[in-house]
Amino acid sequence: MAGPSQRLVSRSMAFVLAGGRGSRLMQLTDKRAKPAVYFGGKTRIIDFALSNALNSGIRKMAIATQYKAHSLIRHCQRGWNFFRAERNEYLDILPASQRVDEVHWYQGTADAVFQNIDIIDSYVVDYVVILAGDHIYKMDYEVMLRQHVDTGADVTIGCLTVPRAEASAFGVMAIDANDRITSFLEKPKDPPGTPDNPDITLASMGIYVFSWPFLRDLLSRDAGDPNSSRDFGGDLIPQIVAGGKAMAHRFESSCVRTTPEAPAYWRDVGTVDAYWKANIDLTSFVPELDLWDTNWPIWTYSESVPPAKFIHDEADRRGSAISSMVSGGCIISGTEVRESLLFTRVYTNSYSQLLRAVVLPDVVVERHARLKNVVIDRGVVIPRGLVVGEDPEEDARWFHVSPGGVTLITQDMVDRRAAAQ
């Protein structure tokens, strides 16, 4: 067991599961996996898990990819290429490539790790931190690793504290007074409370810590079980809960906050509504997620672009942005931008208005457009005079309108509308 002066992260690796499509994001994931979706003006969703690992001190990482991985792989090659093997640092991208046989791709989350056992062996690590690559949060994994070692757990599971009434959408834990997991329930109708508070439930974050020898043996045995679905949450974790020692790690104890009173921020931006809201929330006066914290930065691929530019100053033709985030390379030409988040190289033209808009890179907004409560996919050219967000029925004819009233606009949708007119 490591002594208190030894950093467990130096003996650990992060294995990031980044192969999922994220179909609830609709057309945003037609061309990219969910972890590669843009977030926060500059970053991709996967940057949060990778940055947490790097900031925690982990210098060995692997990313398992599967669905439409090119965008994700290209981003990691450009933005995460600073690891040096001579310093015992590694970041390997592991696409599903039929490494075990010529039939099977990754069959589940556990199988994605099993198929890369030889690569993990080559890292010579004692512990493996399994991470989902599709959530927004800041967390010090060293704290979770220390709990894992100190409690002698077979697995330690990162857990969110959620109101019991809302916990039916999660995989949840029943625990004893020492946070030992007594049962793992997938989306139960009647979620269990906790011994210290019957009104809250612990929900899985999809973060697991194992010792590598234990996990290696568990994966090998699971691979030989014809009845297994090769999934951590569906197979391996319930097995450990039943016959081993599974411990819950509460996110509040390792969440990275800028101030002690700040909330424990975690978001699954897996729907259009949740994605839009999490981005727009960043434009608030004091956002719950602090992207300006230099002590725990979110690392990403930083493009070489000029500063944002605002031009024209007439009564109805003023380039302005109020309560908004505008990234480098943008030109706001005679457009009023409010409560919006603009990614790199967005060009807007005169007499247009953007209100609560999330605009991905390389979008062009032509003159006289009015866009409200929208998400605009990368590279879309918004035609002159387009009005979105004022007539839901008209919007739904051409675009995807979410249950919460957010309109998702892609170039295919714009082209279809143009062809019909």
TrEMBL record:
It comes from the Bacteria. Residues 14-283 form the Nucleotidyl transferase domain. Pathway: Glycan biosynthesis; glycogen biosynthesis. Homotetramer. Its EC number is 2.7.7.27. Belongs to the bacterial/plant glucose-1-phosphate adenylyltransferase family. Residues 306-409 form the Glucose-1-phosphate adenylyltransferase/Bifunctional protein GlmU-like C-terminal hexapeptide domain. It comes from Roseicyclus mahoneyensis. The keyword Magnesium does not apply. Involved in the biosynthesis of ADP-glucose, a building block required for the elongation reactions to produce glycogen. Catalyzes the reaction between ATP and alpha-D-glucose 1-phosphate (G1P) to produce pyrophosphate and ADP-Glc. The record marks 66, 105 as: Could play a key role in the communication between the regulatory and the substrate sites. One of its GO terms (molecular function) is glucose-1-phosphate adenylyltransferase activity. Keywords: ATP-binding, Carbohydrate metabolism, Glycogen biosynthesis, Glycogen metabolism, Nucleotide-binding, Nucleotidyltransferase, Transferase. HAMAP family: GlgC. It is an enzyme of class 2 (transferase). It catalyses: alpha-D-glucose 1-phosphate + ATP + H(+) = ADP-alpha-D-glucose + diphosphate. The keyword Transferase applies. InterPro entries: ADP-Glc_PPase, ADP_Glu_pyroP_CS, GlgC_bac, GlmU/GlgC-like_hexapep, NTP_transferase_dom, Nucleotide-diphossugar_trans, Trimer_LpxA-like_sf. This is Glucose-1-phosphate adenylyltransferase. Alpha-D-glucose 1-phosphate binds at residues 106, 171, 186-187, 204. GO terms for biological process: glycogen biosynthetic process. PANTHER family: GLUCOSE-1-PHOSPHATE ADENYLYLTRANSFERASE (PTHR43523:SF2), GLUCOSE-1-PHOSPHATE ADENYLYLTRANSFERASE-RELATED (PTHR43523).
